[in-house]
Amino acid sequence: MDVVAACKAFVAVSGHGSFTVGAAAARIPQSVASRRVAALEEHFGARLLDRTSRTVTLTPFGREMLPSARRLVELAEAMAHDAERAKLRPFRLAVPAICTPRDLAELVADGRRHGLNLDPHPADPGERAELVRTLEVRAALVAVPPDHATWRTTLGLACHAEPRAAVIHLEALRASRADTSTKRRVRLQPEDDVPHVRDQVTRLRDAVGLQPAQVVVSSLVTAAAEVLASTDLLLCSRAQADELGLHWRPIGGLDLARGYDVTAGVREDAHRIRTSLSTAIGHCLGAR
To answer: Do 14 and 51 belong to one domain?
Structure first.
């Protein structure tokens, strides 16, 4: 038996002195109100109402139980109101700064379909984890090694002019000592300035004989501008390359990827984000 629903029927019928009027006030059929009150009487083992052909009056037992029934109904209504307010309370989520406004808008819309009022907060990798620790956000999409990730985004190199080759090898950037022209660079953005990405690139740089200055980290805007104005290469996902109008290719000899997972101050928040919004988040991250 639904005790709250039965108490609502009891309070409405007793307040109006009629099953017909009380049921209408409670927005339920008269037969349903009658069944619910009868079930409540059976539950307590005593009659709550005396019924005649025209009126309904409280029994002595009913008069004793009415205040408690009212309190239960009021508490249930208060809980329903609080639940609606909780759903509308912003859920602040730290996300990578690489996420586009369009993708974030789609993520927010998907969150609303799952009862979450998301408030995305773009930030770089180190800042996102710190925001969770200081409780400035409820959850964050954090950078993790790809083999420990919920979402995995393949990385490659992008350039302004379309390459002839299907794969870009870093050794192609190696220049002879006699070559005094500006050497081509691989540009990393802050999102990839994490050990499991940066260290693999620098190890490959050293292995193929590039100079240290040929791998640099800068803001995404600066990096993209340099790539658009030169023959430099941007380390990025295919989705980012498409967004920037660049030509993307895999890196020869290197399987490189960003890895992401979600962390939160409350375990249930992390589970909810990971399960309910997995597809929309993957789209934001360029995971394919």
So the answer is: yes
Classify residue 189 by burial, with Cβ atoms within 10 Å: 0-12, 13-18, 19+. Answer: buried
Domain that holds residue 46: 3-85
Tokens of 182: 């500006």
Could you give the dihedral angle defined by the CA atoms of residues 177, 224, 147 and 118, in that order, rounded to the nearest 10 degrees? 160
Q: Taking the C-alpha atoms of 9, 13, 16 and 21 in order, what is their torsion angle to the nearest 10 degrees?
A: 80
Task: Give the tens place of pLDDT for each residue, 65-121.
Answer: 999 999 999 999 889 887 777 666 789 999 999 999 999 999 999 999 998 899 999
Are the beta carbons of 157 and 251 closer than 8 angstroms?
yes
What is the number of domains present in the chain? 3
DSSP helix/strand/coil, 174: coil
Residue 242 in domain: yes
Bridge partners, residue 168, by sequence: 251
pTM of the predicted model, to two decimals? Answer: 0.70
48/14 Cα distance (integer angstroms): 9
Residue 280 in any domain: the answer is no
What six digits make up the tokens of 287?
């995971």
User: Do the Cβ atoms of 271 and 265 come closer than 8 Å?
Assistant: no
